[in-house]
Every structure is written in structure tokens, then in C-alpha cells.
Amino acid sequence: MKKTNIIIIFVVLLFCLPAFLSHSLVNAVNQMLIAALFACAFNLVCGQGGMLSFGHSAYFGIGAFATLHAMGVMGAEGIMPTPFLPVAGALVGFSVGLIAGWFSTKRTGVYFSMITLALAELLHTVAPHLKGIFGGEAGLSGMRMPSLGISFGTDIHVYYLTLIWVLLAVGFLYFLTFTPFGRLVFALRDNSHRLRFLGYNVHRLGTMTFALSAMFAGLAGGLQVISIEASNYTVFDMHLSAEVVLNTYIGGVNVFIGPLLGAAVMTFMGNAFSDLTRNWLLYKGVIFILFMMFMPTGIVGFFQILFTIFRKYSLRILSPFLLLASIAALLLGFSTVYTVEMMQRVLSQDYQMLAQLAGANVWPAIVLFGREWFPGTGLFYVVPVFLFFSGLAALKLAIIKWHKIKDNDESGVSGATLPEKSGNDVSEQNCEFNAGEKV
Amino acid sequence: MEYFTISLFNGTIYGLLLFMVSAGLTLVFGMMGVLNFAHASFYMVGAYFAYSLQKVFGFWPAIILSTLLVGVVGVFVERFFLRRVHHYGHAHELLLTFGLSYIIAELVKLFYGNYPINYRIPESLNFAAFQIFGTNYPVYRLIMGGISLAIFVLVYLLLTRTRVGIVVRSAIYKPHMVAALGHNVPLVFMSVFGVGAALAGLSGAVAGAFYITSPNMALDLGIIVFVVVVVGGLGSLEGAMIASIIIGLISSFAVGIDLSLVDVFTLFGAGEWASGIGGALALKISSLSATIPFLLMLIILLIRPSGLMGEKE
Amino acid sequence: MTNSALSLKSVHKSFDEAHIIRGVDLELFEGERHAVIGPNGAGKSTLFHLISGQLTPCKGTIKLQGQTIQGMSPQYINRKGLGRSFQITNIFRGLSVFENVQIAVSQRRGLQFTMWKLIDRIGRIKEETDELLEHVRLTTRRDTLAGELSYSEQRALEISMTLASDPQIILFDEPMAGMSHEETDYMIALIREVTKGRSLLIVEHDMDVVFSLSDRISVLVYGKLIATGTPEDIRNDPLVQEAYLGEGVGA
Q1: Which of A374, B149, C68, C105 shows the greatest Cβ crowding within 10 Å of its Cβ?
Q2: What are B4-31's pLDDT values in tens digits?
């Protein structure tokens, strides 16, 4: 019951948000919702079905264009009320997903990944040449029409439209995990070979899973179009497919809420940081790699581990470790950001020009973190190096502290297991997929 | 005839280049079961390294140095990234290399900017090898083809004629058995990974000067290379060779063909109807040259899912 | 006399050069328990793969209750009433014991694409699943992850999944492999019980099990059946003794 209460509070909060937030923030939340739905749809294939797709931008894009056409043809005539336009995206997404899924689920493992990638790329290369469907290189645009007595002229209207669709879709996807079909999708990831000998048609099951995922990806694309009223062929670009993979895994694929969380957080950070840095994508890649190397269960897994630690040890015992770990994270993070930002600024063409104008051996100041830095001086190089190594030292200390906590515990209570270990075990099971396809 | 001969030359040379990149990918896959998503990134890094190094060392030394450097990068990636996540399974390794390719592209943008750089072949190499139907044929294309061929012969001889080659080939089929026989399989893996990366780097260094060197080159080529290995059959060098040449030829021939489905309909007297429909029917093959490899891949998947030279499932 | 549940006629299978199955004729009568024995590498597992649809024979016919099944997909053959277990335990390790059997049970109900019902609310499936678990004594382990079961419990789970589709013909591939004495005894009793009214084809290395369980035995050596008969016949067959004592085949 506790879980449902949290969900209800959260949903109510989402409905009340526009009352507190500025328009641009409502817009940002809108984008977060769409990204969350997309990641959730993607996770049906990837996390639950165990098939890693690298081409999900295709279905997002197809949904976007289908909705645009629906907007142009039916929305303008008033045949289809504006709130229902994304259905066109979902339906077309589903149909294309059936065909694409039929092809791609013929193979498993890395082959599947490559086929999905190639299918998306196929669309990406054809789309600019198909003026009628994708509007050529310029793309298409449309207009939201007032319908059902709502103008759909403001961001708030769009926000509620998106919110309701996302809640419905995510609700359905959650429900799906408890149905016979949903259970089979889990079984498909776990052991498709056994499924076959239990009389199931694995190919059909995979195709259906893929199509459903494409359908909700299409819905997300449709919602995107409702909000920005335009699209062009670059939506099929690898960039978007990569985005959803990163978001989903950063969130954590093993738990339903993981991808939602990952997409929401990363989209929010992307929005917040895009004004501050040009290197957000680089940081995002680094965050992804860090998660993949050290915390494969994602943000959700991280919190699960924190939870188990807190339940097991008192805050008093933990606080030195947590303090050290936080300091280490801060120092390492700061030195990385400093290095990247400085490199970007020093290497930028503007700065190179300035330096040339200033003459030999004179380096103009760079403003970062609210103060001026001079590339010619020692401080410029000492700061990141010092921070980095003190960060490493703090990390080392934190690890030692952690082992001490654990050792004390093991001498006292028997049978204690390392929390990290249990986290890894879960991911290990889910990551096993038959890449080789060798019999 | 002119069109035919030139397309034949260009296509073969492009195919040989594709082979140089896909050879490393397919070797690594066959051996470690890892599909290295960052493989084409090594190709890109090779080009950028060579661009920077040639300013100091000159063209040819830069190419050799950049090949070696990329090999070192490959070894580094295997040792400090892939090996650490090996126990999570192949999907995890694929994701990790995917993330690496993402980071490498962003780093390249950080250092060199978002736009193509001015990496050109030196003037001393920029002359015609011979005239063909009144057109000059650049000698550099022949050099690229020659290097690829030499690499193919070298790798082939290394794999079939040397002791190391025998260990590598058996490690592809039965890594555990080879380990049990006392060979250092992790070291073999690391070396093959490094050599594969170096090959990709070499192709990047050589081809980057002729084609375009930009932050997108990894992805553009990477996807084609995936198509090559799927069509050829993952893990098969011969398959990679055949598929590379086929795709090289198709891409180069398609560019010059202005036919479309409308023309087919015209043969049956329905041309006007078809051009009235437009859309996909009016698409010229030339504008589809980037798409055809993917269509080919789908056809292969339908009729021979394990690829041209792949083992049957 | 009795009807044939499964019949193989001159079945051949080779992998490249290696000729693994060289013309096998085998009849499994309805209701009988039939064991296939033979030295390692005789092709017993290959034979099972051919029957269950994992492999396609190069030559010959396989009939399941009169219907030709060779070259059909595993799921088709399963739906025709043939269930099999695997030599290497083949279960859904990441799902609970209950869910494992639940999935196996659901197949017959045609619920593959049901997306509007909660699976745990479908009463019949729950009952049937619990019944099967009771049968193989896994009720107490119901909510454990299948991957965390002990080895013999996993074997029991594997058997309950094989039974879940209510198959008329059952193929067991070395169900006792790696089991202790008590476990084996229990397993024999279990197999006796669950195969009542069904036809069983079993591959097993433990000769005590084979001779106490089977109505008939076939001996497979180098891809050929050298003898078929009652346990008594087989015990006294000179050819079989030769094959097992290693005096050279066909001497």
C-alpha cells in the first residue's frame, strides 16, 4: 500500500506542477516526461526482453512524422481532436515495429543490435529523399488546432496533454509486466531456448514485444511533435538512439522505474547544464561509462545499495565513510570538469585567435567558476592535478574505511555480504545474453 | 565503359578499405565474442592523430606513428575497460564500447571542433597515376588499395603461416582449450585487440586524407562496417573480404545510376502513372547509394541469416 | 499389439564429415517406458535433439502419433504433445520457481499474447502450477529464484516444467545425472508416478535406474541401434556385452 501512496502523491504533484513552475520549467518537465516514456518503451525490449536495440530513434521518428501528417490532414479538418493525434504516431509506430521486429528478432544478441542499428540508418538515409513523407531535408511542420473547447495554445495545455498520455502509457507498460505476456517477455530474456521447448513461438513473441515497444516510442515521438509542431529527418539520427540507451542504463534496466528515472534526471540535467557547458554530452558519456564499470544496476541500483547499507549499519558508523566518499566524488568530479572546460576553452578558435593577437607567451585570462584563470601560470595546472590526486586519496581512504566497517561487522555478525556484491549478481544475470550464437 | 571501369576501380578500392576496418572487428568478435562498437572510433582517431602528427613529422611517418598510437589506445581500452567488465557478459561489453565510442566522438569534437578538418594528402602524392578515358586517375587511390591488399596478405600469412597465427586461430574457436594448453589467452586477446585497433587506425590515417576527416566519420563508416560483418558472417575473414568488396562496388556503381522504379514502369508503358505517384517510385538509385547496403543486409538476413561465409546456426 | 507413440525410420544425421546417427529405427509404444543406453558419444543426445526439433535429420522420417514431425520447429513438436527435459539444466534462472512452472503451464492455455489479465489472478493456472509443484515437492521453494535452487531441486523443477504441457510423450535426458542415492531413489519413484498413462523415452547412464524403470531398452552404439528388447533380453545379449565390455564392435 505504501508504494501506491507514493505513486498517487507523485501523480498529484505532477498535475499541480504548472501552478508553481515558470513556463520554461513546465516545458522542461514536458521534455522529461517524453524522454521518460521513450526510455520506458525502449526498456520493454532492452531491459525486460533482453534485446539491446541501437535503433529506437526510428520508431520515435516515425511516430513523430505520423502525428505531423495526422495533424495536417485530420487535425486541421477537425476529424481527429488534437489530444488524440499521438494515437496516429502510436499506430504507425506499431505497424512499422511489426515489420522491423520481424526482421530483427530473427537473430539474437549482437546481431539483433546491429540489425536494429541498420534499420534506423536505412530510414535515416532514405528520409531526406522522400519529400512527400518526411519533407525532404527541411522536414515538415504543423499547427496544433484548438479542439474540444481547449485552445492548446499554451505550454500548460500541452503539458497536461503529454502528462495524461505518459501516465496512461507508463501505467499500461507497468501493468503489462504482470500479465501472461509480460511474464513471457521476462522469460524470453532469461532463456529463449527453453521457451521454445515449452511450445512457445519465440520469434512471434519477440516481434510482438518489439512492436509494442515501437508503438510507445511512436507515441513519445507524437507527443514531441505536439509540443514542437515540427520534425525533420535528423530525428532518425543515431544521436537519439544513443540517448535512450544511455538514459535507460544510467537509470537502471532491472527495475521498472529505472529508465523513467534515468531519462528524467538526464534530460533535466541536460536542460540545466546546456547553458553552462558545451560539453554536456561528454559528461554524459563519462557518467554512463562510470555506471557501466562500477554500478551496472544504475541509479536505482545505487539507491538500493545505499538502502541496504543504511538498514544494516547505523549512521554513526557510516558517516566517516560517507563523508570521505562524498569528498572524493566532489574532488574527482571537480577536477574532471575543470580539465574538460579549460581544454575546451583553450582549444576553441576564439581563444586561439585572442592568444595570437596578444602575442607570444601571453595567455589571456579565462573565466570559469566565477574567477579568472591564466593558462600561462603554474596555478592553472596545479589546481586540477592537486584536486585529482587528493580526490584519489580520499577515495582510497573511503575504501579502507568501508573495509573496516565490513570487517568489524563480520567479526560480530556472521553471514554478512557485501552490498555491492549482491548488486552485481543481479545485473550479471540480466546481462548474460548469447552474443556468439554459436551452438 | 568509362563509367564502368572507373566505378570498378573506385569500388574495389573502397571495398579494400572497408575490409581493413572490418577485419579487426571480425577477428576480435570471433575471438572474444565482443562486438566492439568503438572499432570505427579507432578509425577516426587514426585520421586525427595522423593529421596532428604530420605537421611535425611529415606524412608517411605520421601514418606509421598514428597506427602504432591507435594500437596502444586499443590495448589500453582492452586492458582497463573491457577486461574489467568481462564477467558481466557480452551485452555489457558491447554497451561499454558503445559508451566509449560516444566519449571518443565528443573528445574529438573537444580537441578539433565540430567540423571537418583540413587533412589533405601531401602535394607530392597528389598526381594522376594514369589517364583513363581522358580522366586522370589519382595515384593516391592506388596507394590506398595497395596498402589494403598488403595488409590482407600480411594478416593472412600471419594467421596461416606462423605459430602465433595458429594460437590466435585456435583461440577464436576454443579459447578455454588454448588456455588449458598453457597459452596466455588474455595476452593473446589484448594483442589481437590492439592489432585490430591499429589496422583501423591505419585505414583512418590513410583514408582520412583522401575522404573527409570529421567527427562523424566513425559513425558513418562504423554502420557500414557492421553491415559488412553481418553480410560476410561475423568472425569470418574471407566473408569480411567478400562482403567488403561487394558493398564497395555497389556503393560506387549506385552513385552513377540515375534509374528509378519509374523507368521500370515505363518499360511496361506505365511510366506516367508511376511518376505521377512519385514518392518511393521516383527515387533514383543514385540517391539511394547510401541505403542499398542496408537493403542488401536485409535480403541476406532473409535468405541466409548467418551471412555469406558464416557458420550455419 | 500396442500403438506406436513415436516411430523413427532409418534416421541419419551428420555434421560435416562426422556421421553421428547412422540409420536408427526405433518404436516407442504407447504407455511404455523405454530407455536408450549406450557408451559416451554414441549419439543419444543427438537423437533426442532430432526428435524434439532442435536438429533436423539428414535422412529418414520421425512420426509422432502417426504425424510426420522431422524438421519441424521445437514449439510445433511440443504442441503436438511431446515434452522434453535437458541434460544440462535448462530453466529460467532469473525467475522464481513458481513463475518457471507458471510459464510452462500457461502455454496450453493459449495465453501467449494476453495483455489484459494479471497472470497471478488467473485461478486455473495458479492451481495447476501449485499442483505440479506439490508433485515434485517444491512447494516450500515456491518463491525462491530458480537459479538459487540446489542441483537436484533444479532437476525436479526441470521435470515439472516438462510435465506442465501435459505431454503424451516425454523425453528425459539423463534426469539422474549428478544425483545422490536418495535423490535418485526419489526421482525413480517420481518418474514412475508422473509417467503413468504416458509414453516415456529416457536416456540414462545409471544402469540400476534403467533396468528398474524401463519396460524396454534400446542400445545405441556409434549411431546405430544394436539391440532392442526387455531388460532381460538386453542383459543377455552378446552384442551388448561386447559393446559395453569393449571387445570390439562386430567381432
Answers
A1: C105
A2: 888 888 888 889 888 888 888 888 887 7
Mean pLDDT by 10 residues, chain A (439 residues): 84 86 86 94 91 92 91 72 86 93 85 86 85 78 74 81 93 91 89 87 92 95 89 86 92 90 92 83 90 89 88 81 87 86 79 74 72 74 84 86 77 46 37 33
The CA distance from A121 to A61, in Å, is 12
Counting CB pairs under 8 A, whether chains B and C reach 3 or more, is no
Q: How far apart are CA A75 and CA A144, in angstroms?
A: 7
Distance from CA of B92 to the nearest CA of A (A): 6
Angstrom distance (rounded) from CA B102 to CA B86: 20
Subunit partners of chain A (3 or more CB pairs within 8 A): B, C
Q: Confirm if A120 and A55 have CB atoms less than 8 A apart.
A: yes
Cα separations in angstroms, A383 against A229, A364, B26, B57, C46 = 47, 18, 44, 33, 67
Confidence (pTM): 0.86
Which three cell numbers, joined as nine digits, stand for A157? 495545455
Mutate to test the interface with B, among A43, A126, A203, A337 (most CBs of B within 10 A): A126
Quote the CA–CA distance of A268 and A262 in Å, as a whole number: 10
Would you give the DSSP letter of residue A128? G
Fill in the DSSP letter of residue A275: T
ipTM score: 0.85
As a whole number of angstroms, the distance between CA A239 and CA A241 comes to 6
Residue A45 gets the label, from left (phi > 0), alpha (psi -120 to 50) or beta, of alpha
Of A101, A104, A100, A121, residue with least CA distance to A57: A121
